Automatic annotation (TrEMBL):
SUBUNIT field: Homodimer.
Coiled coil segments of this chain: 71-98
Family: Belongs to the GrpE family.
Pfam families tied to this protein: GrpE (PF01025)
UniProt keyword Transit peptide present: no
Protein name: Protein GrpE
Region (Disordered) residue spans: 1-22
InterPro entries: GrpE, GrpE_CC, GrpE_head
Organism expressing this protein natively: Sutterella megalosphaeroides
GO CC entries: cytosol
Keywords: Chaperone, Coiled coil, Cytoplasm, Stress response
Localization, UniProt: Cytoplasm
Amino acid sequence: MTTQNQNETKPEETTAEAPATCCGAQEPAGGCACGEGACGECDKGEETPEATVENLQTALKLAEAKVIEHYDLYVRAMAELENTRRRASEEVQKAHKFGIEKFAENLLPVVDSLEKALELTKADGENPMREGMLATYRQLVHALDISGMKPIDPKGEKFDPHHHQAIAMVPAPEGVEPGVVVEVFQRGWTIADRVLRPAMVSVAQG
């Protein structure tokens, strides 16, 4: 059995390096002591007060621009809403005024027929048929009147192309100025100041 060597190798001495500092603390071997590993922020200097004020002023200007933009959009939206409300109100008013326009227009031939029949029947003496037609005519005209319809009977008035339709030009009778309606062949009608049918007339010429 051999004798064990009593001389053992002396271990090498190692010099421990001082840990790096980070964020005011010692940086461990695994990374930055702030917990972010090699964050890279620890080497940066703190922001100066001048830079902070400049950043705040820039942010304030951006916020003010946004406020102006949003206020402008708000004003436009409110204006559009008001216009929509006004248009809707006008449409409702028109519907109330002219809702019976088509129905009333279809009734006008009935009125014309009754007027023509009353002209052709004799008014003297008792005539039950004429009296019945006259009563019907009065009721019909009253119904049209309370519905906003008015007759256009312009005999002796100045010709108005917006309310009258000239179907003949005749020599001006004595005492009648040119451009005056001489005869009405068919009465016109309006509904809520809107011409439903112009009056058919003859006009005096000079």
